[in-house]
Design brief:
The chain has 12 helices and 9 strands. By secondary structure, it is α/β, with parallel strands linked by helices. The strands form 2 sheets. Strands 5-4-3-6-7 form a 5-stranded mixed sheet, with helices on both faces. It has a 4-stranded mixed sheet with strand order 1-2-8-9.
């Protein structure tokens, strides 16, 4: 159940907790025999999962208050994606959806996180970055300025009333996701040969290849083949960017082996929910039940690590 929130957002922990509880409610509707006291472990992979342990503790408190002391396993969405895509094995996974980030994890559990700095300071090659460039081209076309695209304007018309588009998007609490939603339109228009859209896609491919390259180099020893998987809506939207980034990476690195992701985030969460998460353990925050406070609510004891560390 997506929350549309990061733990680092104001009120993010409350929104994530609400989304989790709504997902549980829907699950119980399907399986009415499920009981809250049967839940022993909860795994959450979310944006901001490692940058905000205090917010993560609030989510843990709320869930344990509801589910009677279940262990909470908290991590970033890219860690869950990495575990799922490579089946818990070492390698590099680059995720480009609303945001963009690459994670390299080695056999000994050392890791390197590249980008993932958010829409305003980073996330180069992300859906947000592509969508923003595309919508700027729409506005340039409407203004009659150079660099506009009539083809992208036609696509934008299908999604918004152009007279109100700027106000509608900028006043929306989900503005980042709204802008990112235009990325697949840009990719499709690029496939049809629109030069402005092609330029946007070419730039995104370069950024994603650069981000992935840094992650690859953190694992490269010149002898071992490095598995690399690409995940996220930018790569699956028509497959154009996936093909171009894969081609660029294999051109740059003879030791890269491009992999089709073997599993999704749910399968990654199942792997990480084990008592020991293998090479991903240092990327986890495990919140265990502490003695209850006077108010009867368990507090979270958290353990974690700097997500950009490389041992």
């Amino acid at each position: 159940m997506p929350s549309g929130a990061s733990l680092s957002d104001p009120g993010g922990s409350e929104r994530i907790l609400g989304a989790w509880l709504e997902g549980w409610r829907q699950l119980v509707e399907i399986h009415p025999t499920l009981e809250e006291n049967s839940v022993s472990k909860i795994v959450i992979g979310t944006t901001g999962g490692q940058h905000s342990p205090t917010a993560g503790a609030r989510v843990g408190d709320g869930l344990r208050h509801r589910f009677g002391g279940a262990e909470l396993v908290l991590t970033s969405d890219v860690v869950v994606a990495h575990a799922g895509a490579l089946g818990g094995e070492p390698g590099v996974v680059t995720v480009s959806g609303t945001g963009a980030v690459a994670l390299a994890v080695s056999e000994d559990g050392s890791y390197r996180l590249v980008d993932g700095h958010g829409p305003f300071l980073g996330d180069d090659g992300s859906g947000f970055a592509i969508g923003r460039r595309g919508l700027r081209a729409v506005l340039r076309h409407l203004d009659g300025r150079p660099g506009g695209s009539s083809a992208l304007s036609e696509r934008a018309t299908e999604m918004w009333a152009l007279d109100d588009m700027v106000d509608t998007i900028q006043s929306s609490p989900g503005a980042v996701r709204a802008i990112a939603s235009f990325a697949n339109e840009v990719i499709e228009v690029a496939e049809s040969g629109d030069p402005v859209a092609e330029g946007i896609v070419t730039e995104a491919v370069g950024h994603l290849a650069d981000t992935t390259q840094i992650a690859i180099e953190s694992l490269s020893d010149g002898k071992t083949k490095i598995p690399v998987a690409l995940k996220g809506s930018v790569f699956t939207g028509g497959r154009l960017i996936e093909e171009l980034v894969s081609r660029e990476l294999t051109k740059r690195h003879s030791d890269v082996v491009m992999k089709v992701p073997s599993g999704d985030a749910l399968e990654g969460a199942l792997l990480l929910g084990r008592d020991h998460a293998g090479i991903h353990e240092s990327l986890m925050i495990r919140a265990t039940r502490q003695p209850t406070s006077d108010r009867g609510v368990a507090t979270a004891g958290v353990m974690g690590a700097n997500p950009r560390r490389k041992k």
